[in-house]
Design goal:
341 residues; alpha+beta; six-stranded mixed beta sheet
């Protein structure tokens, strides 16, 4: 079952939308396999090999979900990349001193490249004010608000050469392709916010009730409704990630960064497709689960950074010191790979 769950990431949700959701159950099945090891050790040791075989077949998927890497300090001249779904800049909330802590965090991060999702400022926090703060901190600013989808934001200390929206079907989400100048090379950066599940507070409450009491009389109907909604979003994300990857391949760029809120776990079609052309920064230089979505009862890593072979990544991590959004930011350090010199 664990291996089959991992294999489901190769199925395009545009065709197999319900089966593609199986990846969400991967951590539960992994824990079940571990529990069965102890169960068989106690009750019938001759069957203990069964869960071991399942885990051995799934070792690559396990490493995708929970990598273990020897810590390696980033070089002083490495680029710092931060991607962050800010939940509309923490909805413009101020602290006791009357400041916007999320803006203070972005400036204090000293990141060379900042990619924001849900970065639209609320009415009490004007976009012009946000841009002025970031400009004073030394950032070039590009946003694309063409009315077709969610505005996308990139703040970069590298010169920005061009900005384009990647075309795909979505009413609210989007992907922004930005070309940056890095030394003599042009970097293709794609900031993504792929199709959201759009779960309401009521939906989330239903989910928690199902987990708490699966025998509840409404559990079956609630489960069916949640699966229908999640499958619908998954069905859209398949073609979206295909469009992003096609754009990357057609660009011909060697230096590529694809990051953002993919709304998909490491065991998903989105990550599977991107991994066919790029490398997961978290898999390469992160450790542990790296849970980036922080709402109670919903613990997933749905924010990701993928890079081409041009880059070596260092110290990829989720920054849990930033509590202002329903996501934590993900950070990595990037340096041109020696073999590219």
């Amino acid at each position: 079952m664990l291996w089959a769950c991992g294999l489901s990431s190769g199925l395009n949700p545009a065709v197999h939308s319900h089966v593609a959701l199986f990846g969400l159950g991967f951590p539960l099945l992994l824990l079940l396999n571990i529990a069965f090891i102890f169960f068989w050790l106690v009750f019938s040791i001759r069957y203990v090999w069964l869960p071991f075989v399942g885990m051995l077949l799934s070792v690559s998927y396990i490493y995708d979900y929970c990598p273990v890497n020897w810590p390696e300090k980033h070089p002083e001249d490495a680029l710092k990349l931060l991607t962050y779904n800010t939940e509309f800049l923490a909805r413009g909330e101020k602290n006791a001193e009357g400041r916007y802590p999320i803006l203070d965090y972005l400036v204090a991060s000293e990141a060379d490249i900042i990619c924001l999702q849900e970065g639209v400022a609320p009415k009490n926090l004007k976009s012009e004010y946000v841009d002025s703060i970031m400009a004073k901190a030394g950032y070039h600013i590009r946003r694309l608000h063409d009315g077709k989808a969610e505005p996308q934001f990139v703040y970069s200390r590298l010169p920005i050469l061009s900005v384009h929206r990647i075309a795909y079907e979505s009413t609210t989400n989007g992907s922004l392709a930005v070309e940056l100048l890095y030394g003599q090379d042009t970097v293709l950066l794609v900031n993504n916010h792929l199709e959201s599940y759009k779960l309401t507070p009521e939906d989330k409450m239903k989910y928690k009730e199902i987990i708490k009491d699966p025998e509840n009389g409404h559990a079956e109907s609630n489960s069916r409704e949640l699966v229908r909604k999640m499958a619908g979003a998954s069905r859209l994300r398949g073609p979206q990630v295909d469009s992003v990857l096609n754009y990357v391949e057609k660009s011909g760029r060697r230096a590529v960064i694809v990051c953002g809120d993919l709304n998909d776990s490491p065991i998903s079609y989105s990550c599977h497709r991107l991994s066919s052309r790029l490398k997961s920064a978290f898999r390469q230089s992160g450790n542990g689960l790296g849970l980036s979505y922080n709402q109670k009862g919903f613990y997933f890593r749905i924010d990701h950074i993928f890079v081409s072979d041009y880059w070596q990544t260092y110290e990829t991590h989720v920054d849990k010191t930033a509590p202002w959004s329903d996501h934590y930011p993900m950070i990595t350090y990037l340096k041109k790979h020696k073999k590219e010199d």
